[in-house]
Amino acid sequence: MTDHTENDNINNLPENNNEETATNKVSSGSIREILDTSDIVVRHQLRGMFQNWFLDYASYVILERAVPHIDDGLKPVQRRILYSMKTLDDGRFNKVANIVGNTMQYHPHGDASINEALVQLGQKELLVETQGNWGNVLTGASAAAGRYIEARLSPFALEVLYNAKTTDWTVSYDGRKPEPVTLPAKFPLLLVQGVEGIAVGLSSKILPHNFNEITDAAIAYLKGEEFELYPDFFTGGFVDISRYNDGQRGGSIKIRAKIEKVDNRTLAITEIPYGKTTNTLCESIIKAGEKGKIKLRKVEDMTAAEARILVHLLPGTSSDKAIDALYAFTDCELSVSPNCCVIADQKPQFLGVSDVLRHSVDTTRRLLGRELEIQRDELRESLLFASLERIFIEERIYKDKEFEQSESMEAVIEHVATRLEPFVAGFWREVNRDDILRLMEIRMKRILKFNADEAEKLIKSYLDRINLIESQLASLTEYTIDWFARLKEKYGAAFPRHTVIRGFDNIQAATVAEANEKLYINRDEGFIGTALKKDEFLCTCSDIDDIIIFYKDGRYKVVRVQEKMFVGKGVLYVNVFKRGDERTVYNAIYQNGKAG
């Protein structure tokens, strides 16, 4: 019985195991389905996050942080700083720390970014007047802390940047304060200041241009004439604009430092390339000297208010060759690629600097026209009231029985309106209730001192000013031309051109490189190189030279200098190969491959 039972149990085990295995299979399959479904859901959610959240983030960075707006040429942080300074402006300097704190009402990204942007605006010396240590753009020295330095708006900024009556407004990020959508800028600030910003997926790099050349170009555009604009840098130097391409994508310029000969052994760098400081320039020169590109004794940075770097050469070094080597191997020559990207119509657009100038000038013309219309309408209001006042007093309407004995204000208003009706037919608008209420507020003292001749002179002055504005509106283009000409006359002397426009000859690095290496050959093993110092010496060379090798079987080839390179055996001749050298002639015998 026991054996039988045990056998039965043993026989039943596989069946039970099979059932458990089947159950496990079902469970595993269900789990996989659940996991697959969850994975699909997660991937769908992630896809949605990238499509929505990341797109929102990218759009915010492009529109609200990194790229300037074409209307006023400012990034949001710059616009908020300048608006904040206007709210604080009383003609005196304000502590930068106070300006930064006040700007935080409008800018949601903290004080560090505001302080940095304000320092950059101050260093450009156009919109912000500074007091204290604002750093040095030549040496790269940073500005003092915000509690020690001060700033205020420049007269130029006050003249071209603000007009509350022509400003479009929105609310600040927390909904507490009004702030401008864009400032009503009546000058191409974007071109005169330049800008650089990196957003998500795109960047903007607009080079600065000369103030006077911008005003000349604006006037030429308004006159229907051709114009061209080229970069001008505060740091001076030379610029080759042959490939500038109007500042659009794909263009490039070359910038060079200004290098002068002090004597046969000393060079002086007196103007540096845009985007570099004297510190970074000295570092690049020292590195080139350490690599043997230039035979240097020492480099001295004597920069203060103006750039001055002294490069002392080793005895026997050619100063002309050293200048070429500085351009070839250091940051004394740079290639810069502009990328004129701006926000226009609520999206980034890639334009040329000429397009930006045309848009800005058209905006200036529109804003000037709007300002004239506002002035005209205000003068018309003053003229209307002055005329009503004269009629009210001269016709002694205030003495009418109906005026003095009326029991209600409405009856008085109706009576005055009836009495005025014969005189107001030629007015520019109808007389309303508010006008009559204002007449009734005239004090008796003013009525008693009323002088008809003076009133007539006042009315005539209003008419003359209105007629002048009407004529200016009728010739708005000429008025805008005069506006730019006056700006140039008033402020242009402070902005001479710093950078000289000049075509550059390409400097071949191989022709100016110092022969700072020695070339060796191991004929038995078939190697050449500068590191084989125990083997046979061939010639001196630089580390960027080409080497020509002739073999005993008539073959030859050109290779670049290396520390060690296998060239094979049977070498007959090795020397530095100078491309375009007409003084050296090599003769080789050609052997027909088939007939020998």
Key features of this structure:
single chain; 596 residues; alpha+beta; Topoisomerase II, domain 5; Gyrase A, domain 2; four-stranded mixed sheet; four-stranded antiparallel sheet; 17 helices; disordered N terminus
What does this entry look like structurally?
With 596 residues, the protein is an alpha+beta fold. Among the domains are: 67-182, Alpha-Beta Complex (Topoisomerase II, domain 5), CATH 3.90.199.10; 253-336, Gyrase A, domain 2 (2-Layer Sandwich), CATH 3.30.1360.40; 365-494; 515-577, no CATH class. Helices cover 44% and strands 18% of the residues. The chain has 17 helices and 24 strands. Strands 14-9-8-17 form a 4-stranded mixed sheet. Strands 10-11-13-12 form a 4-stranded antiparallel sheet, covered by helices on one side. A hairpin with a 4-residue loop joins strand 21 (546-551) and strand 22 (556-560). The protein is elongated. The model is unreliable at 1-26 (pLDDT under 50).
